[in-house]
Amino acid sequence: MENRQNFPFVPFFYFFCLLGFVFIQAEAAVKKYQFDIQVRNVSRLCHAKPIVTVNGMFPGPTIYVREGDRVLVNVTNSAQYNMSIHWHGLKQYRNGWADGPAYITQCPIKTGNSYVYDFNVTGQRGTLWWHAHIFWLRATVYGAIVIMPKQGTPFPFPQPEREENILLGEWWNKDVEALVKQGNKLGLPPNMSDAHTINGKPGPLFPCSDKHTFAMEVEQRKTYLLRIINAALNDELFFAIAGHNLTVVEVDAVYTKPFTTQAILIAPGQTTNILVQASQVPSRYFMAARPFMDAPLSIDNKTATAILQYKGIPNTVLPILPQLPAPNDTNFALSYNAKLRSLNSPQFPANVPLKVDRHLFYTIGLGINPCPTCPNGTQLTASLNNITFVMPQIGLLQAHYFNIKGVFRTDFPDRPPTPFNYTGAPLTANLGTKLGTRLSKVAFNSTVELVLQDTNLLSVESHPIHLHGYNFFVVGTGVGNFDPSKDPAKFNLVDPPERNTVGVPTGGWTAIRFRADNPGVWFMHCHLELHISWGLKTAFVVENGKGPDQSVLPPPKDLPPC
């Protein structure tokens, strides 16, 4: 009798096992993408020119994945330039081979060749992005990465009706690589961009651009999620929508405590998710993006626009422009960034390192070095701790993994060689820097605090600093010189924002903390393309741990040769 009662349970047991297996399979899917790097003619601002694209698209295709998925992207290079793609903000645990920066974790993919970027998306969900990481090719080679939460895990904010990717970029009428070469010959910056763009389109405030305008249709009383990415090369941007409040719910693929604002500030490399409620009188409203610059430097200050259009409103209705902060509104920038806080919930905790094993202090500076071939005999340069980084001829990760000598040194200084009044009057003498491929070695699983200090060498300026392979906590920021005796007492060690790219304020400092639990060679650089090309970059060599899953994975068989 007992046997008979138990009998029906057996198939159910197997059914549940099978169901569990199906769920595991569904949770950890393999997503495959083909990226063909190809040149296409594109017209903007009454100018047509050939640009490098992925699959002929500008911006490129969106990668959609779910937390826990494995991703395979086969990149085939049919353009005349060497190519590499960086998956910005993905941690690539033990797997620097898939990180993408040319000559840091791989040699580039040569014309006619392919490489499969093979990586897992572990413990991350939200908006990230991908872009070319060689020369200035990311001007047109970029796209969004949307990581959905695990099946059955809701957003920690109201479920939106729909979502839209908003990629902010820059457009040059001339060939960008030719402009950069010309600038390098002169020892000066190349010409600034001719327009900013929203999803590759400058909007109707520019000539020949009525048809090059992004529009998003909304229905009254519904809520929308905008995934905003700053893919611009050299400009921090304000973004706003006329008549609508924006509720920030995530930055750099980390949930935040929600707060409402009329505009956001987003630096190159950063992402911000906002909720927008279509609560206004049905009409057409401009979304707008314009640069923030509070230093005495010239920039492309033109406004890109797109349209938020309520359903049923004809295209003949003229859109309303939003009130963006003034281009030099430092107070808005500082107060906006001060509002950013990690959600720090039981499900999404902020595991801030409280004990620090290694204290680092890096100054960020511009400089002038001799250049015998330049008309003035000098060229502009940039540095960290007065060291201008020299790119190697082979990937640093290969040199580290195979113990190839003579490629890099691990003596990058923990603090500047000569302390000075970093943010006093502009310094215009002794602006030479030291050149070298110098890295900093970090012990596995050690905790690092890095203070990034802007300086007035030539000029103060805001610098968005990006660290590969990690998120970090922005525990403190301030204007002027960092004071090690007073400032740490004001650090937020409870719910600081967790990011992969942070804006160091003009004439100020930012303190970040992270746990070095990802072995490999990880690039850290300014995300202003001009400064990265001038040498404002370095890398951390994070040593292997003792455990079997605490060392760099072996390189893939198809890693591009040098």
TrEMBL record:
Signal sequence, renumbered to the chain: 1-28
GO-annotated cellular components: apoplast
GO molecular-function term, one example from the UniProt record: hydroquinone:oxygen oxidoreductase activity
Primary location: secreted
Localization per Swiss-Prot or TrEMBL: Secreted, Extracellular space, Apoplast
CDD domains documented for this protein: CuRO_1_LCC_plant, CuRO_2_LCC_plant, CuRO_3_LCC_plant
Cofactor binding, note field: Binds 4 Cu cations per monomer.
UniProt keyword annotations, A-Z: Apoplast, Copper, Glycoprotein, Lignin degradation, Metal-binding, Oxidoreductase, Repeat, Secreted, Signal
Gene3D superfamilies: Cupredoxins - blue copper proteins (2.60.40.420)
EC annotation from Swiss-Prot or TrEMBL: 1.10.3.2
Residues of the Plastocyanin-like domain: 37-151, 166-312, 411-545
NCBIfam families according to UniProt: laccase (TIGR03389)
Function: Lignin degradation and detoxification of lignin-derived products.
Name this polypeptide is given: Laccase
Organism: Castanea mollissima
Source species taxonomy: Eukaryota, Viridiplantae, Streptophyta, Embryophyta, Tracheophyta
